[in-house]
Amino acid sequence: MQRYILRRVVQSVALLFVLALIIFALARVSGNPADLLLREDATQEDRAHLLRVLGLDRPVHEQLYLFLAGALRGDLGESIRYRKPAVEVFFERLPNTLKLLPLAMVGALVIAIPLGVLAAVYRGTFVDRASGAIAVLGLATPSFWLGIVLIYIFSIKLGVLPSSRMGGPSHYVLPAITLGLFLVAGMMRLVRSSLLEVMGSEFVKLARIKGLSQTVVIWKHCLSNALIPVTTLFGVYFALLITGAIVTETVFAWPGVGRLTYEAVIFRDYPMLQAVILLKAILVLGVNLSVDILYAYLDPRVRYA
Amino acid sequence: MAHPPRGDLARLPWVSFLIIAVLVVVAVLAPLVAPHSPTEQSLPDKLRPPAWQEGGSTNHLLGTDVLGRDVLSRLIYGARVSLIVAAAALLAGGGVGLMVGIVSGYVGGRVDSFLMRVVDATLTFPTILIALLLAVSMGQGLQTIAIAITVLIWARFARVVRGEVLSVKARDFVALARVHGCSHPRIMAIHIVPNVLNTFMVLLTLHIGFVIIVEASLSFLGAGIPPPTPSWGQMVADGRSHIASAWWLAVVPGAAIVLVVLAFNLFGDWLRDWLDPRLRQV
User: Inter-chain contact A30–B138, Cβ cutoff 8 Å?
Assistant: First the structure.
């Protein structure tokens, strides 16, 4: 077990290191990173000064050392737009995103599980085809557009839900739906196929022979097993939600880290963007690592694979 | 035959096929079919609703935007952008994935386990963040998007192609070629590649819709093809702030994305069932 954990931790750290190298290289591939920081009306003296301050006049390997040492101390530079350390800005915004993600996740599960179960139980019937059509449509709908259409219908035409920014509980409805629907199609298909597999297994036949009702067999015996693949994908769903939040928070003017990412792109706030990317990567890798370790703890087969 | 094979020509999704055909023709012939220039502004005509609504005119079938530009014409030229980006990105990303998959599967051993570890890492990582970073550091443009999407999709191709190569590699004609003194690179090029081409074509088709959505999302976030070139994602982004007064600006291009992606996905499903049913599990 310890060896498994150690291996996974080393892998994650190596991945972060590679990511840091990519960020470091990308800032230099298109010219001097100082030019990404300077305003358009900056003079030659400003530029020279900035180069000295940031250590960009030194050889590349020293720059890399400075960058990595800074990153380890939690110093990823100062946001151009906010004139504050980028890491600080990120953690100010993070709670707002973390309030939205669980709602989206729960919402997606509440829609995907019943639909997936119905599709599997009524396999090949109209119900199956209808839920299949929902999945196909869901995969084809860009969430930024879905969000705008929802705003048009529920905020502008019907006037029942607020369209943007944070506030009372009603402010959460549309962003959570938009973000959650992003996951529904994939989740539903997974529930369907995994339930079909379980329904064909021996212990289910036994349960039926025992004379248990269809409802008990499906919802109790089958579903608890069929949901295992869904739970192991929690790390993947988290990564999808974190990236999906960029678009959703942009559409709903939600002041979280997703919108922060968008703003960093729009305002060409390079230090902010590189901080956002590294910190989000740490979050995603951390969640993935925890899920894997938890799973290995619960299922010994994983450890020795 | 009692059970005709799934996905034969009789099952061709005609509607999808028609949508794709119209899209391609319209994109290629954009200057001929577009009623107006996509960038020409005409302020007296601004914010005209679509023709079927009150105040609309047949001169602008899908209305005009805040600068008086014709939405239909922008949509038509935007189709060009979507298709060009999709083609470039798929060729680049698919090509990289194909090569990695072939080398990984054929060479095997340490090379294989290293490459597959990189693939796994790429697949668990939110690669869209790297795409955004690329757009900011390299500047917006076709090249940047193609590289960004390559980063996003190559690993999916590599993994599936590798699996195929493993099964092709074990077949007798490969061993025979080896006995005849065929070099490894030659075996990969003339014996392995043709045998994974079906799978590769199916994967390409299945990813067209995904790539179009990614391109639209990047454009929506201001990291796509820069204006004034019209692209669908950017049209939705521009229309967002006018949703209360001019719904068609955001709704129409978004609906176009849904329709086209849907058509490509259904067509891809059909092609998979026809050429390579085993890919169903992927």
Answer: yes
Tokens for A246, please give them.
Answer: 């960029």
CA–CA gap between residue B75 and residue B78 (Å, rounded):
5
SS3 state of residue B47: coil
Helix then strand then coil, in percent of chain A rounded to 5, is 80, 0, 20
CB A34 within 8 A of CB A54: yes
Say if residues B138 and B184 touch (Cβ distance below 8 Å): no
Report the complex ipTM: 0.84
- Please indicate, yes or no, whether the overall pTM of this predicted structure exceeds 0.90: no
**B199 close to B271: Cβ distance less than 8 angstroms:** no
- Substitution target from B82, B137, B238, B282 for chain A, most A beta carbons within 10 A: B137
Confidence of residue A32 (pLDDT cuts 50, 70, 90): low
Question: Cβ distance B61 to B35 under 8 Å?
Answer: yes
Task: Express each pLDDT in A242-267 by its tens digit.
Answer: 989 999 999 999 999 999 999 988 88
Burial-class residue A60 by CB neighbours within 10 Å (0-12, 13-18, 19+): exposed
Residues ≥6 apart with Cβ < 8 Å to B266:
A136, B13, B16
Q: Which residue of A has its CA nearest to B246?
A: A152
With beta carbons less than 8 A apart as the criterion, state whether A230 and A187 touch. Answer: yes
CB contact under 8 A, B139 and A30: yes
Tell which A residues from 248 to 267 touch B, by Cβ distance under 8 Å.
250-251, 261-262, 264-266
Nearest to B78 by CA among B254, B277, B269: B254
Q: CB-based contact (8 Å) between A151 and chain B?
A: yes
Higher pLDDT: A90 or B68? It is A90
Query: Are A232 and A293 in contact, with CB atoms under 8 Å apart?
Result: no
- Chain B residue numbers touching A247 (CB-CB < 8 A): 217, 220-221
Q: Which of A297, A271, A303 is nearest to A80 (CA)?
A: A271
Smallest CA-to-CA distance from A190 within A130, A138, A112 is with A112
**Among chain B residues, CA nearest to A142:** B213
Q: Do the Cβ atoms of B251 and A242 come within 8 Å?
A: no
Q: Report the pLDDT averaged over residues B215-222.
A: 90
Chain-centroid distance, C-alpha A236: 8
Q: Is the pLDDT of residue B274 over 50?
A: yes
